[in-house]
Protein: Bifunctional lysine-specific demethylase and histidyl-hydroxylase
Amino acid sequence: MAAGGAEELRQQQQQQRRLGRLSALSVYRRAAGAERLERRRRGTPLPAGGRRAKARPRRGAARGGGGHELAAPPPPPSAAVPGRVERAEAAPGSAEKKPPGGPAPSPGAPRVRAPGGSTEGKPPGGPAASSVGGGVPGLLRRLGLLEDSRRRAAELFRWLVAPVEPGEFAGRHWERAPLLVRRGDPGYYAGLFSTADFDAILRSGEVQFGTHLDVTSYAEGVRETHNPVGRALPAVVWDFYQNGCSLRLLNPQAFSATVWHLLSILQEYFGSMAGANTYLTPPGTQGFAPHYDDIEAFVLQLEGKKHWRVYSPRTDTEVLPQFSSANLTQAELGKPVLEVVLEAGDLLYFPRGFIHQGDCLPDAHSLHITVSSYQRNSWGDLLEKLLPAALQMALEEDVEYRQGLPMGYLGYMGVANSDAADTRRTAFVEKLQRLMKKLVDYAPIDAAVDQRAKSFLHDCLPPVLTQSEKQLSVYGFPAQWQDGSPRNVDILITKDTEVRLLRHGIIRLCNEEAGVMLYYTTENSRVYHKEEPKYLEIDPEYTDSIEFLLSSYPNHVTVDTLPCGTLDDKISLATLLFEKGILTTKKPLVQV
Structure:
């Protein structure tokens, strides 16, 4: 650069410092004004554009000075050891859990950790645990070669927690204790998501503050959300970032095909919605207050590094909570059970109820994605559906539930009478206990599970099809306008056509008051609950054919073997399911 140009630049910089830089954050704070600050002090709701986080209102401020929270100094980062695994104490009151997604491998199976976190002794023909060779997109392509979607899901989860075996993870960590995996492989998650992807998403023009993106900060014990109204323009977003704000992209699967693909497979393993958020944090800052969540969290460090502290639930009531906590203060925390600096390629898992906080070191930014599952997926959540249905059936079928309460019971029951020695109280309690015990006989357990499954299918992401699957499905059917008229329109399924389900977990039969419903996921949106649940009302005579398709998966069956009444019924059912993307054929229906 010429000397004159350098001098001009220096003068401009000095002038900018004198005038004071009007950053997006400072403009935002000026626009909100004194009223907003006074509202924040009183804890009253903020006006639009100045709201705090909905789920975690601030409960107090930590003591300290300067621009950021006074955190305990991070431990000196140890040398990255490939495949190194660290564990923390189990939560109080936790019990051994079965693995989600299917039976665990036999206990005591040998495991040899190889460099880069790969695992030897994996099932023959299975994809390598490492994502090398095309990164995560390459791994997903290799998984697509497996015929059974359940195997794809199991192998992807194996890769997620490698070199820890899924069975060991289920027995020692799932819903019990945090797990840290240091891989020493910065490229382990290559191609999953990056800051370049984040920038491209911003430039797509589809990102809205609040709906898709949160701008957050946590300094001096105060957690704030700084979302303006409207579109998240790159210049504004990156200005917030330069001024120390964290950027949380909500539901990145709606924007990133790779994240969508990853989650669409994992959801079948968990049997529960798999979601994600990405977090981009500037060096030397923290975006969120300490808190615990109501989900099982898998933190995948994509870029840079981040200092994490994880704390056990403080009481038994916080073990596996139904709901996330409010923001916590530093004074409310004890000693962390795990303190670590995550580097690219590392994994941190912690169960719901474990308090956590992460801050960036001064020398590096951090980009991580949190994959989550098992929100409201407990025995208690099932019982919330089951018990009202059981009581309704008992009222309809058993006169004892419809008999009147004893006259005068208000005089000897209730808290005021709880210490009274009265035989009428004893008889009342025994009768109630017996009625509650009898409810089990009326509990429609399978129907309640079907309703849970129906909700899960509504939560699900639509499946991501491989190229070969597209060619064999309605999504690759070559119908088009050509030479003045539609061509290749007729879907010609015959009795000899070989078909199978696209995925094992994409349908669910539910017997409801309105009839037999077949719920499915192939027409779901990548945006959570953007669409209503998708279903077909089918004739009861078709239920055996649906169950036959499920039990036959992943094998193909000829349409003629479907257990329907007539050949026309068989072809009609197969054609309907094909048109909805539920069935694929063994060979393309139309040769192009």
User: Anything to note?
Assistant: Residues 15-21, 33-81, 95-99, 101-129 have pLDDT under 50 and may be disordered. Residues 135-373 form a domain with the Jelly Rolls fold (CATH 2.60.120.650). The radius of gyration is 28 Å. DSSP finds 15 helices and 21 strands in the chain.
